[in-house]
Amino acid sequence: MNANTTINRARHLRKDQTLFEQQLWKCLRDRRFSKFKFRRQHPIGPYIVDFVCLQCMLAIELDGSQHAGSKLYDQERDHWLKQRGYRVLRVWNNRWIAERESVLQAIFNLLSD
Q1: In Å, how far from its chain's centre is CA 58?
Q2: I need a labelling partner for 9 at 20 to 30 A (CA). Which of 1, 18, 30, 52 fits?
Q3: Between the CA of residue 91 and those of 4, 26, 109, what are the distances in Å?
């Protein structure tokens, strides 16, 4: 995927967020989360991450059932990001629904490291 294609795909994903992505974005946007700046659907190399704090090199992936069949792709992507210094937090949608506060705490803990 070339850079223009990646950027256009990221723009499309920003407009077509899932309900769960919208909910998490409300918590992270506009430096609402402990004053950390996050971007959503942000291109990093050939990949687009759901949310990223560039300052802390933390990528957050909010995964639904569509990721159940893409485990190898997700592992390769996580490895690529980690090689470049990013930490990756993967959160399943059902965990976000059931344990919202613990997910936010996990994000805070990673940002505070």
Answers
A1: 8
A2: 30
A3: 28, 16, 14
Beta strands across the sheet bearing 58-63 = 39-44, 47-53, 58-63, 87-92
Per-residue pLDDT tens digits for 84-105: 999 999 999 999 999 999 999 9
Domain 3-112 has CATH 3.40.960.10: yes
Q: What is the pTM of this model?
A: 0.87
Q: Where are the domains of the chain?
A: 3-112
Among 33, 17, 5, 40, which Cα is nearest to 93's? 17
Give the three-state DSSP class for 70: coil
How long is the chain? Answer: 113
